Amino acid sequence: MALQQKTKVVLLACGSFNPVTNMHLRMFELARDHLEDTGKYRVVRGIISPVGDAYKKKGLIEACHRVEMAKQATENSSWITVDDWESQQAEWVETAKVVRHHHSELLSAEQNVDEADTVKTVKRRRVEENEDACSSADHNRPGAPELKLLCGADVLESFSVPNLWKPEDIEEIVGRYGLVCVTRGGCDAEKFVNQSDVLFQHRKNIHIVREWVTNDISATHVRRSLRRGRSVRYLLPDRVLDYIQDRCLYSAESEKKYTDVILAPFQRYTKNTE
Ligand SMILES: Nc1ncnc2c1ncn2[C@@H]1O[C@H](COP(=O)(O)OP(=O)(O)OP(=O)(O)O)[C@@H](O)[C@H]1O
Ligand SMILES: NC(=O)c1ccc[n+]([C@@H]2O[C@H](COP(=O)(O)O)[C@@H](O)[C@H]2O)c1
């Protein structure tokens, strides 16, 4: 009974995943525990959405590899999946648009279930018409799942970087969908929310998840260690490490990619404000 009243949540993480690390996976587990501890939510799915190549971040290797590594990393997870829609778009896609896309996918999936259920329910009603009223609880459908953006505190703090995010996108993400933010060394997420009027206004929709074990595994650190021939075992799943080593994916050469190229959001917003 109580389980049915909980709001279903799908967590969406957008990022480079260059490459996916154990911390990316842990971020999902921490967020799920945190939301479910409130007693209000049931986290039903996690989605990793690697950014497309057009994001042009320094050292970003091809999306097909980043997607494949994320798939290998989540192979044993019962609830974290990888979606390549964003990575396949020719242009860089704003995160608010990615969230909108996944939200509408969720709603249509839910609608399909509803339609199938309506047919079943009509048939079943004919059989159950004379049955005890208590059995009608069986027809209650839980609401559509909510989609929340999952990120680290560095992404939250990047909201204040000029020309990186559109204010209306931030408002839409925190106001309409919601944000789950995992603390990260060097960032003070609570303070940041308190100092921003728009974030403070939507603070009930911003869930800050504290990672008590300081864990600053970063993809940058992994790439740097790989270039230097240092071990990165246990910082990322073994399958991902094998995938990288089999293809020599990260090198001094790959790190030079997009050097001196302006990051897609800066390019877009700087142009638009001229
Ligand atoms: N150690 C960490 N703690 C909390 N959040 C993290 C951590 N590592 C990554 N994240 C979050 O995971 C998401 C995707 O991250 P991303 O792919 O940019 O990884 P990254 O390690 O920050 O990458 P890079 O080092 O290349 O900048 C982001 O929301 C980021 O904040
Ligand atoms: N305006 C925006 O929507 C905006 C700006 C900067 C980064 N992002 C996203 O945040 C993520 C950040 O990834 P990195 O931390 O690897 O740069 C990416 O998915 C990127 O698309 C979105």
TrEMBL record:
Cofactor(s) recorded in Swiss-Prot or TrEMBL: Zn(2+); Mg(2+)
Catalytic activity, as annotated: nicotinate beta-D-ribonucleotide + ATP + H(+) = deamido-NAD(+) + diphosphate; beta-nicotinamide D-ribonucleotide + ATP + H(+) = diphosphate + NAD(+)
Pfam families referenced in this protein's UniProt entry, alphabetically: CTP_transf_like
UniProt keyword annotations, A-Z: ATP-binding, Magnesium, NAD, Nucleotide-binding, Nucleotidyltransferase, Nucleus, Phosphoprotein, Pyridine nucleotide biosynthesis, Transferase, Zinc
SUPFAM superfamilies: Nucleotidylyl transferase
Enzyme Commission code: 2.7.7.1, 2.7.7.18
Localization of this protein: Nucleus
Keyword DNA damage: no
Lineage top rank: taxon: Eukaryota
GO CC annotation, single: nucleus
Major enzyme class: transferase
GO function terms (MF aspect): ATP binding; nicotinamide-nucleotide adenylyltransferase activity; nicotinate-nucleotide adenylyltransferase activity
GO biological process: NAD+ biosynthetic process
Pathway participation: Cofactor biosynthesis; NAD(+) biosynthesis; NAD(+) from nicotinamide D-ribonucleotide: step 1/1; Cofactor biosynthesis; NAD(+) biosynthesis; deamido-NAD(+) from nicotinate D-ribonucleotide: step 1/1
Cytidyltransferase-like domain sequence ranges: 12-224
InterPro entries membership: Cyt_trans-like (IPR004821), Euk_NMN_adenylyltrnsfrase (IPR051182), NadD/NMNAT (IPR005248), NMNAT_euk (IPR045094), Rossmann-like_a/b/a_fold (IPR014729)
Annotated Gene3D superfamilies: HUPs (3.40.50.620)
Predominant cellular place of this UniProt entry's protein: nucleus
Subunit structure: Homohexamer. Interacts with ADPRT/PARP1.
PANTHER family: NICOTINAMIDE MONONUCLEOTIDE ADENYLYLTRANSFERASE, NICOTINAMIDE_NICOTINIC ACID MONONUCLEOTIDE ADENYLYLTRANSFERASE 1
UniProt similarity note: Belongs to the eukaryotic NMN adenylyltransferase family.
Matching NCBIfam families: nicotinate (nicotinamide) nucleotide adenylyltransferase (TIGR00482)
Protein name per the record: Nicotinamide-nucleotide adenylyltransferase
Organism from which the protein derives: Astyanax mexicanus (Blind cave fish)
